[in-house]
Amino acid sequence: MREYETYIFDLDGTLLSTLEDLAKATNYALKQHEMPQRTREEIRLFVGNGVRKLIERAVPENTDSNTTDRVLDTFRKYYIEHALDNTAPYPGVTELLTELKSRKKNVAVVSNKFYDATRELCRHFFGSLVDVAIGERENIRRKPAPDTVMEALRQLGVGKEDAVYIGDSDVDVQTARNCSMPCISVLWGFRDRAFLESCGATIFVEKPEEILS
């Protein structure tokens, strides 16, 4: 696997194991609005397209938009207070980022998680190992649109010619394709290899250190 100058990472399922806290926040919000709970496996399949889509998938079918908005608001308030309860970097991730910085590489995180949570999680777990962290916010299209990746490159002050995108989902494969960038798909996240291959993924790693092997 070749070495690049810029590495742009997804966050949930790629750098951080966040599923437990996402599941608890989702079920807390559902319970507060007297809706049926979801299994951890269901929520694993719901994530990847931002928290609004997560909640839209979690609430009962035909739930009206105003009710969905209230569930989403409950989720956001709970999650921002409990995002660190069970979340942690996957084994080898911190060592990978440390090695990238020792090699003077550019490192960014681009997530469909809402903006404040993305920045806080990156600051808490990775500090100066991540140069730029961008989450979902108004006035910029979320992944798989290329906008947030292009914004990360702009903030880094580099082009995409020597950059690679790393993620764990079909959304990440599509994002890299829309950015005309190579994509490395990790196999420790929220989607398995067969599913990723069906979405067009071609480069896989089973451990973070393989990204620089």
Largest beta sheet: what is the strand line-up? Answer: 5-4-1-6-7-8
Largest sheet report: 6 strands, parallel
Structural class: alpha/beta
Give the rounded overall mean pLDDT: 95
Brief account:
This protein has nine helices and eight strands. The protein has about 210 residues and is α/β, with parallel strands linked by helices.
Describe the structure.
The chain has helices at 19-32, 40-46, 51-58, 65-82, 93-102, 115-126, 147-156, 170-178, 193-198, and strands spanning 6-9, 16-17, 88-89, 106-114, 132-136, 163-167, 183-186, 204-205. The chain has 213 residues and is an alpha/beta fold. It has a six-stranded parallel beta sheet, with helices on both faces. Strands 2-3 form a two-stranded antiparallel sheet. Strand 4 (106-114), helix 6 (115-126) and strand 5 form a beta-alpha-beta unit. Helix 1 crosses helix 4 and helix 3 (51-58) packs across helix 4 (65-82). The radius of gyration is 17 Å and the shape is globular.
SSE order and pairing:
Layout: E1 6-9, E2 16-17, H1 19-32, H2 40-46, H3 51-58, H4 65-82, E3 88-89, H5 93-102, E4 106-114, H6 115-126, E5 132-136, H7 147-156, E6 163-167, H8 170-178, E7 183-186, H9 193-198, E8 204-205
Parallel strand pairs: 1-4, 1-6, 4-5, 6-7, 7-8
Antiparallel strand pairs: 2-3
Helix pairs in contact: 1-4, 3-4
